[in-house]
Amino acid sequence: MAEDSAGADGGGTTTDPLMRRLVETARDGGWLRDVGDRHMAHHRPGGATLLVGFEELETARERDEPAPWTARLAAKRGYATLTILADGRTWYRDPALEALFDELTDEGFFDEFDTVIFAGGGAEGYAASAYSVAAPGATVFAVQPLATLDRALTPWERRFRSAWALAWGPRYAYAPDLVGGAERVYVVSDPTETFDAMHASLFRGPHVMHLPATHAGPEIWQRLETIGILDRLVAGAESGALTPLRFAQLWRGRRRDRAWLGGMLRKLDRRGRPWLTGLFARYVADRHDSAPARRRLADARARLCEEGRALPGEEPPAEPVREAG
To answer: What is d(CA 251, CA 38) in angstroms, rounded to the nearest whole number?
Structure first.
């Protein structure tokens, strides 16, 4: 594909560290181009596997070393990458982006690779699922994917109201149907998050594997990145070795993630179960220097004491001495 002006000089924003990185890594057979007003496409050459990822520009800029998340996996696994970068939350609903994938399909771009993986989380999980139809036989790794925000199809979805006015069709639209041509589809979701679980349940078929990340909260993709298992999950999806058991083993790494631990403490607080809150707070306090965990542990112990109970391994309160009547 011919390089446009963005591929030549980063669209004139060479002082931007992210843009410099994109321009440098697009050389020697790659390309960087603007796609409509709010998207950019970056192709980095590599091996026989193509990783197609989606991300907001600001998220890529905020990393310690500004780069798309696909760059780290490309460096580690030798993948070629195609990264679609969005200026804000666009939901990747753009005729120019649809035209790009049409063009790539017509040119046989995806046919040049032995394996193609589409991956993303949240809005990007929706995009990874929807645009995977451009490469039949691809693998999809979708985290918290939304099926669509078309009001006629998901009237129960009350979030993301600003996106309701977008055109959710007629092409590259309803993600559960568009993954029908994929060889394998992995859907990671939190069954305790009602709306996310409802979207995930719409992805069905013998080629779809659901991987439950129970109590992961609203930012599963970020949790996978933070605990350092995203690359192994994508590699497992590529080889077909990813299973619910393997996912559960890797997902245990969340116990080292302070953000996840804090979210669980708040979730248990809302449930009003001091025994369970106390157990979890004690676990966190024993392993981390966490003031919130210590506060919750003290509160749980006080509430249990009022009920004449105690946490396992701790002495219950002594019975009060009653005076003879």
So the answer is: 34
Distance CA 302, CA 280 (A): 15
What's the chain's average pLDDT?
A: 91
146: CB partners within 8 A, 6+ apart: 122, 123, 125, 126, 154, 157, 175, 199
pLDDT at 287: 85
Kindly provide the residue ranges of all beta strands, DSSP E only, lying in the chain, ordered along the sequence.
Answer: 31-35, 39-44, 49-56, 80-86, 115-121, 139-143, 184-189, 208-212
How far is the C-alpha of 68 from the C-alpha of 79, rounded, in Å?
A: 13
208-237 burial by CB neighbour count: b if 16+ within 10 A, else e?
bbbbbbeebbebbbbbbbbbebbebbbbbb
Convert the pLDDT of each residue in 24-54 to its tens digit: 988 888 999 999 999 999 999 999 999 999 9
For 28, other C-beta atoms within 10 Å of its C-beta total 8
Which residues 6+ apart lie within 8 Å of 226 measured at CB? 257, 259
**Three-state DSSP state, 116:** strand
